[in-house]
Write a structure and sequence with these properties.
Layout (H helix, E strand, L loop, with lengths): L2 H29 L3 H46 L6 H84 L2 H10 L8 E5 L2 E2 L8 H7 L14 E4 L1
Parallel strand pairs: 1-3
Antiparallel strand pairs: 1-2
Helix pairs in contact: 1-3, 2-3
The protein binds zinc ion.
The site of zinc ion has 9 residues, from loops.
C-alpha cells in the first residue's frame, strides 16, 4: 500500500471527523435556552413582581383605612355620647371626625386607583405568560430536532473514529508520526494530492522527476515548496 495514500485516506477521515465535531457543537449550542425564551421569562417575572408590589400597597392602604375608621368610630361615639358637653371640646371632636373622614376618603380613592393598576398588571402577566409559553413551545420543537440531529452526529462520529483507528493502525509508526507532526502546521491538511504535476497544497508545479519519485515512496516524498506529503494517484 502506498504510504502517501494511507496518509491521504487518514486525512480524509480526520477532516470528516472535524466537520462532524463542529456540526455537533453547533447543534449542542441550540439546546441552551435561547435569548427569546430568557427574555420572555424575565418579562413574565417582572410583571409578577409588579403585581406583587401593587397588591402590597393595596393591602397597606386597606389596613390604614380600617385603623382610621376605628378611630373615627371612637371619636363619633365620644361626640354624641353625652359625656362631653363643653362646646369648644365638641367642636374639636367634630373637626377631628371630619379630618379622619377625609383621610378615609383619600385612602379609598387611592385603593380604587391601585385596583385599576392591579387589573392592568394582571393583563400584563397573562400576556407575558402567553408569550413565554409560545417561545418555550417553539424552542422545544427546535430543540427536539436538535436532539435528534445530535444523536445522529454522535453515532456517525463514533463510526468515523473507529474507521480512523483502523486506518491509523495500518500506517507505519514513522509515517504516522510525520503526519501528526505536520497536521497542526498545515491547517489539518498535511497531505497534498498531486494533479497535473502540481502540488494540491501550494499550487506549485513540480518537476516530473519529483512526481515520479513521489509515487509510492516510503518514507513519503514531501513538497519542496510547502513541505506537505505528496500523494500521486
Ligand atoms: Zn506544495
Amino acid at each position: 500500500m502506498d504510504p502517501a495514500k494511507q496518509l491521504y485516506d487518514l486525512q480524509t477521515l480526520d477532516l470528516r471527523i472535524a466537520a462532524d465535531a463542529a456540526r455537533l457543537e453547533a447543534e449542542r449550542s441550540k439546546i441552551q435556552e435561547p435569548a427569546e425564551v430568557r427574555q420572555a421569562r424575565s418579562a413574565a417575572k417582572a410583571a409578577e413582581q409588579q403585581l406583587e408590589g401593587l397588591q402590597k400597597q393595596l393591602r397597606a392602604s386597606e389596613q390604614e383605612a380600617a385603623a382610621i375608621n376605628v378611630k373615627k368610630t371612637a371619636v363619633h361615639a365620644k361626640l354624641y355620647g353625652g359625656a362631653v358637653t363643653v362646646p369648644r371640646e365638641l367642636a374639636a371632636l367634630e373637626a377631628e371626625e371630619g379630618a379622619l373622614a377625609k383621610s378615609v376618603s383619600q385612602l379609598e380613592d387611592r385603593e380604587l386607583e391601585l385596583m385599576a393598576k392591579v387589573e392592568d398588571a394582571e393583563k400584563l402577566i397573562a400576556g407575558a405568560a402567553a408569550e413565554l409559553q409560545g417561545q418555550l413551545a417553539r424552542w422545544q420543537s427546535e430543540g427536539s430536532a436538535a436532539v435528534e440531529h445530535i444523536g445522529e452526529l454522535e453515532s456517525e462520529l463514533r463510526q468515523l473514529q473507529a474507521e480512523r483507528a483502523e486506518q491509523a493502525a495500518q500506517v507505519s509508526p514513522a509515517n504516522l508520526a510525520l503526519y501528526e507532526r505536520l497536521r497542526p502546521r498545515k491547517a489539518n491538511r498535511p497531505v497534498a494530492l498531486v494533479e497535473n504535476n502540481m502540488c494540491g497544497g501550494c499550487r506549485v508545479s513540480l518537476p516530473s522527476g519529483d512526481v515520479h519519485r513521489a509515487r509510492g515512496a516510503d518514507p513519503p516524498h514531501l513538497c519542496d515548496n510547502c513541505g506537505r506529503v505528496l500523494y500521486v494517484k
